[in-house]
Amino acid sequence: AWPKLEALTLSHYVSMDETKVPTFHGLFSLLRLCPALTLVSLVIDTTKLDGIDLQYPGGGICNKNLKNLDLGNSYIESPLNIALMLSALFPNLEQVGLGCWDKAPMKYVSEKESALEQW
């Protein structure tokens, strides 16, 4: 664990077809082990919400320090569920970034509009 870690950048863009990406369960573990985080940049699979209580995600884990969250090209199926999760996990969140779309390979540009609409 890195209890004093304040910023973590792991990825902005991954090919979802070829790469296993963390889920919200992994994000819960990260928050538990690194409570001082103020910035996280990480692509996660937001579609796997199995076993997560949307009213009490992560068993009550809450990071009041995190202000900036960059989820890169994380795919989203249910904007409402993700909004519920993020607001419970990060009550002081100021920004959710999706900056990877400026750097994504051209073959994925056609997916950009539909992906950004979900966010």
UniProtKB/TrEMBL annotation:
Superkingdom assignment: Eukaryota
Protein name stated in the entry: RNI-like protein
Organism, scientific name: Rhizopogon vinicolor AM-OR11-026
